[in-house]
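Lab meeting minutes (informal)
Scribe: AK
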Amino acid sequence: MESLQLATSIAKVLDTKKAANVKVLKVRDLTVLTDYFVIANGTSTTHVKSLAEEVEFQLEQQGVKALRTEGYDAKNWILLDYGTVIVHVFYPQAREFYDLEHLWADAEECDIQFDTPAEGGANE
């Protein structure tokens, strides 16, 4: 699966599960670590965990497995590393504290078209 397609698919899974403020950042030209970041937040630590688990589940159904995961114990910031795409699922206060969008301000934000606006989801 091509990296933008993978990032878009992940963003849509997160949006469907009512993640807030879903963003896809193209960081390919800024780092050798990955091509895209997908950043989102849940409304509680339980929601953060369920969002990350749903991304893993949906991608495993397509034969795509995370190379590495971190943060499931604390549930404030769960990272899923898919090689060309790194997913960051935050608890709101952790997202504000780490402020990846500011840290990667030179990254291009991709315009992802979600199928239906989710209440409390990415389109707010």
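Next up, CB showed the second protein from the same session:
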Amino acid sequence: FLGLILVVVYVGAVAVLFLFVVMMLDVDFVELRQGFLQYLPIGVLVGLVFLAELVLVVGSWASSATLATAPAVTQAVSGLTNTQQLGRVLYTEYVYFFQAAGMVLLVAMIGAIVLTLRHKPNVKRQDISAQVARTPKDGMDVVKVRPGQGI
């Protein structure tokens, strides 16, 4: 049950992340569809290669007779919970892969920020140096309006 909940939560988080990125990028899908047919054969070829690899891996795993008689990968550590054992394995045997996954997530986060950070000309932005350098004399103008006329 816990594993299923974790999968659902993480799939939802990734879906929300993709939705956020698509909304922030403001992509013009009409331009993207113009070259769609040009890359369709390459996409189909790559998809078929991945499908063939998946069939080969699943087929070889399901038909393996030695899998049922294989010994346990690691011995059970007594006195530790599953979470403690998982943490011990992740931070000792797979520390480089764990750090690499963290770096990939960091690069993905920075990439999402860089892609969404655009300076649009019609958006008002603060200029901190101009605000600090302003004097009270420059802050207000007295305008003399003639009677019967607006500003």
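CB comment: The mean pLDDT is 76.
No objections, moving on.
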